[in-house]
Design goal:
The complex is a heterodimer of chains A (111) and B (110).
Chain A: E1 5-7, E2 10-13, E3 19-24, E4 31-38, E5 42-50, E6 53-57, E7 64-68, E8 74-78, E9 87-96, E10 99-102, E11 106-110
Parallel strand pairs in A: 2-11
Antiparallel strand pairs in A: 1-3, 3-8, 4-5, 4-9, 5-6, 7-8, 9-10, 9-11
Chain B: E1 4-7, E2 10-14, E3 19-25, E4 32-37, E5 43-49, E6 55-58, E7 61-66, E8 71-76, E9 85-92, E10 98-100, E11 104-109
The chains are: A mainly beta (111), B mainly beta (110).
Chain lengths: 111, 110
């Protein structure tokens, strides 16, 4: 158990819908990272927040957004969902530069 | 941009056999992570290599970083069914980002 929690574990929704994925980092970790893992693309970095502020952006679509709240939990919002958005979404938290601890992931299925 | 290539992509070995997984970077490596992922689950941190020539181990799994070759290898001796899963290498890539290879799927035959 990494100490990072993610909810929900599974999410099934329809195209065009909007969903919110939640992540609670390990106690004391200020950084939160979001990743998308699909079979063809592998694990792709989406976005990083540090203490409530966006720190780095990766291959995140404009339909996706994230935020980190004062209590350090983070949410990833995915809107206008497409079939290709079906993937595992991971959150990771970090106590310091470069060491990341991953949550169990949210499996999103878009039908 | 930096890319990590893992080889092989997939590996099936008989229980008890040794195996090696490689991770090669397109750019200079300033560190390398190895993670293990059970199918459909989260990533488990195995180890982090920071210096050329450094070798570390995690529960008899060893990994080494060859800075000159921009490569790391992960070695599993006497493989067990519990070793099955996906092994991912990751490298720091600017700011606090980590980029990952596409993974090596390891299956262990009893």
């Amino acid at each position: 158990d990494s100490g990072v929690t993610q909810t929900p574990k599974h999410l099934i929704t329809a195209t065009g819908q909007r969903v919110t994925l939640r992540c609670s980092p390990r106690s004391g970790d200020l950084s939160v990272y979001w990743y998308q893992q699909s079979l063809d693309q592998g694990l792709q970095f989406l976005i990083q927040y540090y203490n409530g502020e966006e720190r780095a952006k990766g291959n995140i679509l404009e339909r996706f957004s994230a935020q980190q709240f004062p209590d350090l939990h983070s949410e990833l919002n995915l809107s206008s969902l497409e079939l290709g958005d079906s993937a595992l979404y991971f959150c990771a938290s970090s106590p310091h530069y470069n060491e990341q601890f991953f949550g169990p992931g949210t499996r999103l299925t878009v039908l | 941009s930096q890319e990590l290539e893992q080889s092989p992509q997939s590996l099936i070995v008989q229980e008890g056999k040794n195996l090696t997984i490689n991770c090669t970077s397109s750019k200079t490596l300033y560190g390398l992570y190895w993670y293990k992922q059970k199918y459909g689950e989260g990533l488990i941190f195995l180890m982090m290599l920071q210096k050329g020539g450094e070798e570390k181990s995690h529960e008899k799994i060893t990994a080494k970083l060859d800075e000159k070759k921009q490569q790391s290898s992960l070695h599993i001796p006497a493989s067990q069914p519990s070793h099955a899963g996906i092994y991912l290498c990751g490298a720091p890539s600017g700011d606090d980002k980590i980029i990952f290879g596409k993974g090596t799927r390891l299956h262990i035959l009893p």
